């Protein structure tokens, strides 16, 4: 073979090598993406911490620190979906507390925030975001009359899954405020109310949505869940796992948190003005964490949605500050 032929082969080889190298480079570039995390910093009293900088926290994935592209304080308009348990297995006083809390949030809402309402297990109400805040307020007032209604809402997990679709295209800061005693009926099938055993298996929810599927949906929709729970929490909030199949696991795993205002072990619940005032103040703090948070944009590797995220605070913040952030995050933006 002559020199010219060898030269052509060498040139073809080099062109092929550079083409393959370019493809590998493009794939490498496409294997990472930007993801924004909503991060609220709160103290042990539930107060928000302002004035933080990117140096105050480290975002970890598989124990590797991720590069922070931007760190801003986000106070934009929010979409908040109320999901209220209106089931008759709850004492009437608990349901009245739910309505008092929703009314308080609506009456103190910021301009620009929008609301929707879905109920589960009991009286059915469905008010979408586009219907407006007044329609939500009206529906809550109707529920507060506590009239018995034949048409019942669906299972709690199915209701939450339906509500996620109402948001449409995800927006950072989208949130659900859940009010219930439990996501699913107790395994024992029995609760006690006023000294009498009540069979909660009568709920017979037959939910089509599993907890695992719901957690995946919450992550893919980039929605945070916050809760008010009217039964005791079996786990320490500081030792929970985001895979715990309960309200605490769903909320903390998505970047929210839970307020507990438990009934007695016998299912009793005394509604007093002092109790209403106290819980309204706590929920007002909760909505503060919905309204304001740090938007932390990081460069993440491919398939980051299949990994558990972790944020570590700087040493001077760890004693008095807690970071609320999603442990499971949806696919790239």
Lay out the secondary structure.
Blueprint: H1 3-30, E1 32-43, E2 57-61, E3 64-65, E4 68-74, E5 79-85, H2 92-107, E6 114-120, E7 126-127, H3 133-144, H4 156-166, E8 175-180, E9 190-193, E10 196-199, H5 211-220, E11 224-229, H6 247-254, E12 258-260, H7 273-291, E13 293-301, E14 309-313, H8 315-318, E15 321-324
Parallel strand pairs: 5-6, 5-8, 8-11, 11-12
Antiparallel strand pairs: 1-13, 1-15, 2-3, 2-14, 4-13, 6-7, 9-10
Compute the gyration radius: what is it? 24 Å
Oligomer: single chain
Number of strands: 15
Structural class call reads alpha/beta
Low-pLDDT stretches are: 6-29, 188-199
Q: Indicate the overall shape.
A: globular
Order of helices and strands: HEEEEEHEEHHEEEHEHEHEEHE
Name the helicity range: 25-40%
Please summarize the sheet with the most strands: 6 strands, mixed
Average pLDDT rating: 85
Separation, N- and C-terminal Cα atoms: 54 Å
Percent in strands: 15-25%
Q: Helical segment tally? A: 8
Widest sheet: strand ordering: 7-6-5-8-11-12
């Amino acid at each position: 073979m002559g020199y010219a032929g060898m030269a052509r082969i060498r040139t073809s080889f080099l062109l092929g090598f550079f083409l393959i190298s370019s493809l590998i480079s493009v794939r490498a570039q496409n294997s990472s993406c930007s993801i924004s995390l909503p991060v609220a910093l709160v103290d042990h009293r539930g107060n928000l911490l302002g004035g933080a900088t990117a140096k105050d926290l480290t975002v970890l994935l598989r124990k590797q620190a991720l590069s922070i592209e931007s760190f801003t304080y986000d106070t934009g308009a929010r979409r908040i979906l109320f999901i209220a348990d209106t089931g008759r297995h709850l004492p009437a006083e608990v349901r009245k507390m739910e309505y008092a809390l929703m009314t308080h949030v609506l009456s103190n809402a910021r301009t620009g925030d929008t609301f929707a309402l879905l109920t589960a297990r009991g009286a059915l109400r469905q008010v979408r975001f586009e219907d407006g805040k007044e329609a939500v307020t009206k529906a809550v007032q109707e529920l507060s009359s506590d009239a018995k209604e034949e048409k019942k809402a669906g299972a709690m997990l199915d209701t939450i899954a339906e509500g996620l679709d109402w948001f449409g295209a995800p927006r950072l800061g989208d949130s659900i405020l859940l009010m219930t005693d439990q996501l699913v009926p107790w395994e024992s099938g029995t609760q006690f109310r006023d000294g009498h055993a009540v069979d909660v298996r009568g709920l017979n929810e037959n939910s089509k949505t599993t907890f695992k599927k719901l957690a995946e949906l919450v992550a893919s929709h980039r929605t945070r869940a916050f809760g008010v729970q009217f039964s005791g929490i079996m786990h320490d909030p500081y030792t929970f796992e985001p895979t715990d199949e309960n309200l605490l696991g769903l909320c903390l795993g998505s970047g929210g948190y839970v307020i507990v205002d438990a009934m007695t072990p016998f299912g009793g619940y005394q509604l007093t003005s002092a109790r209403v005032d106290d819980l309204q103040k706590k929920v007002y703090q909760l909505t503060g964490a919905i309204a304001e948070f740090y938007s932390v944009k990081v460069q993440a590797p491919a398939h980051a949605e299949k990994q558990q995220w972790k944020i570590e605070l700087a040493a001077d913040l760890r004693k008095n500050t807690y970071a609320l952030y999603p442990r499971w995050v949806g696919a790239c933006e």
